[in-house]
Specification:
mainly alpha, Hydantoin permease, 447 residues
Length: 447
């Protein structure tokens, strides 16, 4: 049983921390470039649909599993289904979080490097070649490995202090500030000459641009943005009190995630089209567009620096959740030192992430099925591990976990009607798993 000191102190702290775990790179970094590469407005519409119909129900399910078991991911499934094979979902989650962290920390290192460089004003320069700057930074193995290592070190330090002191306090302060700065950026972006072309690209669906692979990417993006499928939210909700409504909390996190994704698109694509940039630029899109946008503002370097620091915080809150699930899996049962486990986990993640960190430099020519190590790891996690984990969680909720316990956890702290519960339960039992299977098989060309 969790102790009082291991619990979230408030509902708002839990929501902001969960939103921080969900938003991070998923909504701000990955969503714009995935939208740019996969059809613009049609991809965005699919992303919203999958987030509401599939992602939100899965998020509620992970909350229910975590709070009912009061354990981290691996032990939670053992507690709820003792003596069965279902505990593999927890192990799947830890493995997924580890793989995700191995390349996520590389991008986190990029954000950290840009943040540090922006403070003395080393990014925005008149006539600067921002695509060239990004290529120069990511093409330097020493810089990328340094950023990768420092990013993981920050994670280890924060996770060592535990859930309440390390994560919740900072989330309640800095997450709202990120929203404010994003809104300022959007207001400036949409006033650029030619901005409407970017807005149309982002908000006007053209379904002729979609194929089965794009649909899989939209599904994977909805899971990536909500951090579902690897039981991160199982671990987070295990610290949650019984008087908090899980459905409303999940709804708040999902709405915030969609809203930030909308802001990200409105901040990025008007600038892309105004300055003749390429929407399908790929993982470097954000790092190229942000300096271009802030360079057009008074005190742009100052605002860029503040925004990057807030963005760094959002990225860190996501990575905290990943390192937390790994650390909790090895401290819960055997009462090991949290600090030692976090440090060891951080070291292993750093070593595992070296090939991804070097994918833009020394290992740029090394390919796995035509993809760099970075891209291959991203594809494995986003399009196989996350959808697979969500499918297993849906089957666990729908066909294994005790129905009375599920209903109790859904009802605690909530005044939602029985019809809402039944709708959610049937979605989890039938629509969610069937949709995941159809989308996955479609992407393979089987159906």
């Amino acid at each position: 049983m969790k102790t009082k000191t291991d619990q979230w102190s408030s509902k708002i702290g839990f929501i902001f921390s969960s939103a921080g775990a969900a938003i991070g790179l998923g909504a701000i970094w990955k969503f714009p470039y995935m939208t740019g590469m996969n059809g613009g407005g049609a991809f965005f519409l699919l992303f919203i649909a999958f987030t509401i119909i599939i992602g939100l129900p899965i998020l509620i399910a992970e909350f229910i599993i975590g709070r009912s078991a009061r354990k981290e991911a691996v032990t939670a499934y053992k507690t709820l289904a003792p003596g069965s094979v279902w505990s593999f979902i927890g192990h799947w989650g830890v493995a997924g979080a580890f793989l995700l962290m191995s390349f996520y920390s590389v991008v986190g290192g990029w954000v950290l490097i840009y943040s540090v460089m922006s403070i003395p004003g080393l990014i925005i320069n008149e006539g600067a070649d921002y695509p060239g700057l990004f290529a120069a930074i990511t093409g330097n193995p020493f810089i990328t490995l340094l950023g990768h290592g420092l990013f993981i070190l920050i994670n280890v330090i924060v996770i060592s202090f535990g859930i309440k002191n390390g994560i919740e306090k900072s989330s309640k302060l800095l997450m709202p500030l990120l929203f404010v700065f994003f809104i300022i950026l959007v207001i400036r972006a949409v006033t650029f000459e030619g901005a409407m072309e970017g807005i149309r690209f982002f908000l006007q669906p053209d379904f002729s641009k979609l194929n089965a692979e794009n649909v899989l990417y939209a599904l994977g993006q909805s899971f990536f943005s909500l951090a579902v499928g690897i039981s991160v939210m199982v671990t987070y909700s295990s610290y949650l009190k019984k008087d908090v409504s899980l459905a409303s909390s999940a709804g708040s996190v999902s709405i915030m995630n969609i809203f930030v994704s909308l802001l990200a698109g409105l901040a990025i694509f008007p600038v892309v089209f105004s300055f003749g940039l390429e929407p399908a630029e790929g993982p470097g899109l954000l790092f190229i567009v942000l300096p271009e946008a802030f360079a057009q503002m008074p005190f742009g370097e100052v605002f860029l620096s503040l925004f990057l620091l807030l963005f760094l915080f959002a990225v860190l809150t996501s990575s905290f959740s990943m390192l937390e699930i790994i650390t909790s899996a090895f401290t819960e049962k055997k009462q090991r030192s949290r600090k030692k486990v976090a440090a060891l986990a951080g070291l292993i993640v750093f070593l595992a992430g070296i090939p991804a960190a070097l994918s833009t430099s020394n290992l740029a020519e090394f390919k796995i099925f035509g993809l760099t190590v970075f891209d291959a790891t991203d594809f494995l996690v986003s399009n196989i591990m996350l959808p697979g984990g969500c499918l297993f969680i849906a089957l666990f909720i729908g066909f294994k976990m005790d129905k009375t316990l599920i209903k109790q956890e859904f009802s605690y702290g909530s005044n939602l009607s029985a019809g809402v519960y039944q709708t959610w339960y049937q979605l989890m039992r039938w629509l969610v798993p069937v949709t995941i299977i159809i989308v996955f098989l479609g992407s393979l060309g089987i159906i």
